[in-house]
Amino acid sequence: MERFFDITPKPHYDLIVIGGGITGASVAYEAASRGLSVALFEKGDFGQATSAATSKLIHGGLRYLKNMEFGLVRESLTERKVWENIAPNFVYPIPFMVPTYNNIKSNKLILFMGMVLYDILSYDKGWTWDKSKKLPLHKTISKKKTLELEQCLRIRGLTGSSIYYDCQNINPERLTLAVIKSAIAKGANVANYAMVKSFIKKDGVINGVNVIDKLTGQEHSVQGRLTINCAGPWADIVLNKGIADNENNHHIRRSEGIHIITKKLCNKHAVTVMTKDRRHIMLIPWRNHSLIGTTDKEYNGNPDDYRVTKESVQGLIDDLNENYGCQKINYDDVVFAYGGLRPLVDDQTEGSYESSRKYEIYDNAKQGLNGLITIEGGKYTTSRKLACNAMKVIGKKLGRKLGKSTTKNEFLAGCEVKDMDLFLAQLSAQHPNFSSETVAYVGMNYGQEAYKILDLASKNPQLAEVVSNDGELLAEVEYAINNEMAKSLTDILFRRTGIGTLGHPGEETLNKVVSLAATKLGWDSQQTEHEVENAKLIFELPQ
Predict the structure, then answer these.
(1) Cα separation, 483 vs 235, whole angstroms
(2) CA quadruple 60, 176, 27, 363: dihedral positive or negative?
(3) Residue 120: what pLDDT?
(4) What is the Cα–Cα distance from 236 to 234, expressed in whole angstroms?
(5) CATH number of 420-539
(6) Cα atoms in the Cβ-side hemisphere of radius 13 Å centred on 468
(7) What are the sequence ranges of the domains in the chain?
(8) Which CATH superfamily groups domain 4-50+173-252+357-409?
(9) Which residues pair with 503 in a beta bridge?
(10) For the whole model, what pTM was predicted?
(11) pLDDT tens digits, 360-392
């Protein structure tokens, strides 16, 4: 991976994409795969914001059935299968358990009807390239069997449960990166830490952007026929760079979603219950811990100022303690907390939890910004389909026939694995000196690139050091810097590896990572201290 500023860019691009989250990445990949020249700029790191603040799921959205959003659910279920196919090392079936109680809001009949409809809408879920990804039909089990499988449930009033399957996205940050890599493979030029300062306008038409390389401070002008605003919670801020009249400034609604990670509280099932105010809270197994989420609270303010608060964390703890029957947890039991903002389209219902995850594609010509298209809303699961729909608008604006999408039929870059079980077995056989935990973790998080990671570690004993309970290797740090555009310590800890995503890895491990990163990236002592402080701010729970 080479940054836009380290190559000789094209004199003119068909598309300039603003935003390197999953939406921007998907649009860049889809456009490049259709033969368009694409430049993508992300003001932070790829997938740093909303795309990293997920429940780590690729799912249909069972709860949207109550809003009668059958089209959205069907689209999500179709895209769930696509992700299973094109990113098999990242996306896996996971059983969900929904307990039933002797009350109206969670009784067996209502749940049964929803489950049957969910199965009908996902009638093609067995048509996966890798048969191990095939999802079973739902089933209903007794109270006794429910408690045998999961002991975290509140027992009083329990009548049984239903079990259905969706998919877990084990590493959303690296999956987003895989989409970025796929766009690059199709010819896109990209850069992280590249902030769009302003639009280039001529005769009332936007035909490019002025972008600042935040690593050097240099400003660059980039020409493009169309600019696509995929800035998520920052979409209105980007849009308003081109609007002089403050009275006509555009505003989007933002919803805060946070998650906390604790010791393991559930077994193999993602257990979901409904709170008194009819929100859902999930207890999800992840990396031998429990991932708990999410909140859905409207956020007002500058998205740059957003931080997870103690109040939000405590609220999630209270929800867990009130609605589950496992051992009560307190603030000190939280090993890590993370959050982000979701963009919601303007006309959605009052109260962000009731809002849809549908998306909108706007041609901003009506606002005097011809040459600009803004995409708002959506969710991780449907990002590829969103990009396909955006191509319809883009094709018309460019006056070009862009052909049919091929992205659902091609593996993402590095994900070319037809049979995961066979792949991991072969990887283990070729690298017998590494533990099964290391082979599994590296194989699942890097796909075909796992061979390069293990080869690095095989040649350098220092890089073969294990830096997490999952078996992660120090070699991943060097690989991230050399091959994956990692420019900061937080890039490495939270988005290229999983070393930091279960909380502080310990001073010894952190020092090893920092030492290697400082050497490879040429940090002096002042920069190194700055990088460490930034990372520790993320590790620390809000007080």
Answers:
(1) 29
(2) positive
(3) 95
(4) 6
(5) 1.10.8.870
(6) 25
(7) 4-50+173-252+357-409, 93-168+253-351, 420-539
(8) FAD/NAD(P)-binding domain (3.50.50.60)
(9) 501
(10) 0.96
(11) 899 999 888 999 999 988 889 999 999 999 999
